[in-house]
Design goal:
Structural class: alpha/beta
Distance between the termini: 44 Å
CATH topology: pyruvate-formate lyase- activating enzyme
Helix content: 25-40%
Shape: globular
Oligomer: single chain
Strand order of the largest sheet: 4-5-9-10-11-13-14-17
Number of domains: 1
CATH architecture: Alpha-Beta Horseshoe
Order of helices and strands: EHEEEEEEEHEHHEEHEHEHEHEEHE
Strand content: 15-25%
């Protein structure tokens, strides 16, 4: 990967990670800036320009560092939060909400992990004071892939050490990457779950552009499981086609060959969905997409989804397939879905 320009916040000029980046990318143009927000996204940059030109921003995350996750973001009955350590992704999933979220596809990484960690500890201690022994979840990967650039960013050891000392706090690293070389250097922890998003092979090829293929992800899952890392899965987004039941049946069989069903920490299932802004960007960027359907409606949370009968049928079919392969129903949850609400 080559970044045309690398923008660095002035206070980080002598940060070890910045010095490392200068050595790693000697051909990139380095520019000092006051803060990321002064440059990133100030002039709209087309999403698909990421195919030919990406810049990198290095800064410190400002504002609220840890946020309450939306409803149905994780297993019910436990509090869920997410934290942001980066913006944007090197991959190009053609349904991705990031294409309508930021004004630019450029990559932003934040280096103030100690501040983020302090906030995670504060929230954990508050929950333990109110409900001793109850789990509290923190998710990484909301606006980026949690593993894809870890060989550059180097934050994994910090978070593993942090959560090792917070046994009631659980960390989820959400990914489509097979970049596990930094991860396997670390001792597994029962409260750090590596969760992979998976789709049937044809869907992966057609929709998860520039990502590692299904077989590569399953191999990474198997290796991490063998090394003792807890594994979660996201079968999300599920996209309807006439072969959807057959393709998901095959996918779930492949999953159970890669990892024993009882070893999975949880599986989320969810249908393809968009905000209105993202939906318009998808139509613009991928006008020939086969997942734009006539039965999309504005749903209960103002997102565009399949109509209720279609999405409940899809979710029900996939859940039944998972259970038939030995995955406990209590480990399956519907992501960002309220099945009892129109």
């Amino acid at each position: 990967m080559i970044f045309e320009k690398i923008f660095i916040e002035e206070q980080l000029i002598n940060h070890p990670k910045v010095l490392e980046m200068k050595a790693r990318f000697p051909e990139s143009e380095f520019k000092l800036i006051s803060k990321v927000e002064d440059v990133f996204g100030r002039v709209k940059k087309p999403y698909l320009q990421k195919r030919t030109n990406l810049n990198l921003f290095i800064g410190e995350k400002k504002g609220q560092l840890v946020k309450v996750a939306p409803p149905a973001y994780g297993l019910s009955g436990e509090p869920h939060y997410y934290f942001v350590h980066a913006y944007n992704c090197i991959y190009e999933c053609n349904y991705c909400y990031l294409q309508g979220y930021f004004q630019s596809p450029d990559i932003v990484i934040f280096l103030n992990h100690e501040e983020i960690g302090h906030e995670i500890k504060r929230i954990t201690f508050e929950h333990q004071k109110a409900s001793p022994g109850k789990k509290v979840w923190f998710h990484a990967g909301e606006y980026s892939d949690s593993l894809a650039l870890t060989h550059l960013t180097g934050e994994l050891p910090f978070y593993f050490e942090l959560f090792k000392n917070l046994p009631e706090a659980y960390l989820e690293l959400r990914t489509k990457s097979v970049n596990i070389k930094e991860l396997i250097k670390l001792s597994p922890s029962k409260n750090i779950v590596i969760s992979f998003s998976l789709a049937p092979e044809e869907r992966t090829k057609n929709n998860d552009l520039k990502t590692p293929g299904l077989k590569a992800r399953l191999k990474a899952i198997s290796e991490l499981h063998e090394r003792g890392h807890p594994i979660g899965l996201h079968l999300d987004p599920i996209i309807y086609d006439q072969n959807v039941v057959t393709s998901y049946s095959e996918l779930i069989e492949q999953i159970t060959r890669a990892i024993p069903p009882e070893a999975l920490s949880y599986i989320s299932i969810g249908v393809v969905r968009f905000t209105k802004n993202v939906f318009h960007q998808v139509l613009k960027n991928y006008p020939d997409s086969d997942f734009i359907h006539d039965d999309f409606v504005t749903s209960f949370d103002n997102k565009i989804r399949y109509n209720k009968p279609t999405r409940l049928w899809l979710l029900g079919k996939v859940k039944d397939l998972l259970i038939s392969q030995g995955i406990a129903s209590e480990k399956i949850y519907e992501c960002m879905e309220e099945s009892d609400v129109d």
